[in-house]
């Protein structure tokens, strides 16, 4: 039995599908992932996957992040017997340069492969590496914007499976509840899942189709929030000589990172313990300046969390930018521990603080916020206190979303909207909505 790799490249909720040309020996004309024979160690064929990606698409290792390797999938048909090793990579580019083995390429959301003539068991191979409630719950690397998109992808794929199998809507509803419960502290995740379930008819196919749209909408909202945040920060630069602002940030936020990429000024990054993800953020920002195509010469400085107040008092920071895991109806912002101290110190020193986030992170009116705690040990009988998130007061932070800065009245209105989205799962809601599942 031949061993082959199949690599799925993911970007913005879509994966790269390739149509095999007449130059390949098997399954010509069919759609698949980037694939090829294993030439090295069948127990660890990641190098074979990277080789095939580079040869078939021109995309190199520096643009790829391995997300997951899945269980193998067996294929037996007239074309041969194969053991398929599936891989999922996040990809930083869509610039594909296909070789002679590919007749066409297309970025699509994964359920689209169910409507095409594909290589055998392509959907099974994808599902072996695609997101699930378990992987969403276990993700401690990415911010809530990214994790909420993964949750939408998981809901989309579960609904596609249910549609294929003829399962009832309730099986998809159970999957939605599991995803919501996977990260109770991430408001955007619950809001986005609730919106899909609230707006879709009560069939798996309707949930699948609404989730496809929701993935694209969520990615777009996060992009626009980053643009609005960058615009707000730019106003705090030196207008006389055109110098961009010096920005202080902490923790890891995809929206914050995208905003900073639009600015050329110096960045100060707190290391963000526990976890220390600020170190990786600082290294990533500095690495961007090594890009031969970069036009800026940005200075990046890493500092311990304990030095935040001193840095602000030193007058070297023009503006602070943080992410948000949740925005409360009063305008307060929940984010990684350290944010409250930053916001209070910045306000004391007259430094404005912005929280860049999508509107979907506004907590529903009346809902409880469930912050996570960090692992932290002490010798008996000493007690510990180690919150992973905390709240920065509304009077210290300006919330910037895809619609620009939100005033307190708008935040309260959004909170009411998000409360209504949870109606699909409240007792007696089915009767209130009617037979067609709509209010």
TrEMBL record:
Molecular function GO labels: S-methyl-5-thioribose-1-phosphate isomerase activity
InterPro entries linked: IF-2B-related (IPR000649), IF_2B-like_C (IPR042529), NagB/RpiA_transferase-like (IPR037171), NUDIX_hydrolase-like_dom_sf (IPR015797), NUDIX_hydrolase_dom (IPR000086)
Pfam families referenced in this protein's UniProt entry, alphabetically: IF-2B (PF01008), NUDIX (PF00293)
Transmembrane region(s): none
Start and end residues of each Nudix hydrolase domain: 1-131
Top-level taxon of origin: Archaea
One BP annotation, GO: L-methionine salvage from methylthioadenosine
Stated family: Belongs to the eIF-2B alpha/beta/delta subunits family.
Protein's recorded name: NUDIX domain-containing protein
Species of provenance: Halobaculum magnesiiphilum
The organism's taxonomic lineage, starting at the top: Archaea, Methanobacteriati, Methanobacteriota, Stenosarchaea group, Halobacteria
């Amino acid at each position: 039995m031949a061993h082959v790799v199949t690599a799925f490249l993911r970007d913005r909720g879509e994966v790269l599908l390739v149509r095999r040309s007449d130059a390949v020996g098997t399954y010509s004309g069919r759609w698949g992932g980037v694939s090829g024979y294993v030439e090295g160690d069948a127990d660890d064929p990641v190098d074979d996957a990277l080789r095939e990606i580079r040869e078939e698409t021109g995309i190199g290792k520096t643009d790829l992040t391995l997300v997951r390797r899945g269980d193998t999938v067996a294929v037996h048909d007239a074309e041969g017997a194969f053991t398929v090793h599936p891989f999922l990579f996040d990809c930083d580019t869509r610039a594909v340069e296909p070789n002679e083995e590919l007749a066409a390429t297309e970025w699509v959301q994964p359920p689209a492969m169910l409507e095409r003539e594909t290589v055998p068991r392509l959907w099974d191979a994808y599902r072996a590496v695609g997101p699930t409630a378990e992987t969403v719950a276990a993700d401690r690397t990415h911010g809530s914007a990214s994790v909420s998109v993964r949750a939408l992808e998981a809901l989309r794929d579960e609904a596609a499976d249910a549609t294929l199998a003829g399962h009832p809507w309730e099986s998809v509803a159970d999957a939605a509840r599991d995803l919501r419960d996977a990260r109770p502290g991430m408001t955007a995740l619950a809001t986005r899942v609730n919106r899909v379930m609230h707006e879709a008819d009560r069939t798996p196919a309707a949930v699948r189709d609404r989730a496809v749209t929701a993935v694209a909408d969520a990615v777009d909202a996060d992009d626009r929030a980053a643009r609005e945040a960058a615009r707000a920060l730019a106003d705090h630069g030196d207008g006389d000589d055109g110098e961009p602002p010096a920005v202080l940030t902490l923790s890891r936020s995809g929206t914050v990172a995208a905003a900073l990429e639009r600015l050329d000024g110096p960045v100060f990054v707190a290391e963000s313990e526990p976890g220390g993800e600020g170190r990786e953020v600082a290294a990533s920002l500095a690495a961007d300046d090594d890009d031969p195509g970069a036009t800026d010469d940005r200075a990046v400085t890493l500092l311990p969390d304990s030095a935040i107040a001193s840095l602000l008092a030193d007058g070297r920071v023009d503006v602070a930018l943080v992410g948000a895991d949740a925005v409360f109806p009063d305008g307060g912002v929940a984010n990684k521990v350290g944010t409250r101290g930053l916001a209070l110190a910045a306000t004391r020193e007259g430094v404005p603080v912005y929280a860049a986030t999508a509107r979907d992170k506004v907590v529903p009116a009346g809902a409880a916020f469930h912050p996570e705690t960090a692992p932290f040990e002490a010798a008996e009988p000493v007690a510990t206190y180690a919150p992973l998130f905390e709240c920065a007061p509304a009077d210290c932070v300006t919330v910037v979303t895809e619609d620009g800065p939100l005033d307190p009245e708008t935040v309260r209105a959004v909170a009411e909207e998000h409360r209504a989205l949870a109606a699909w799962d409240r007792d007696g809601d089915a009767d209130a909505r009617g037979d067609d599942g709509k209010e």
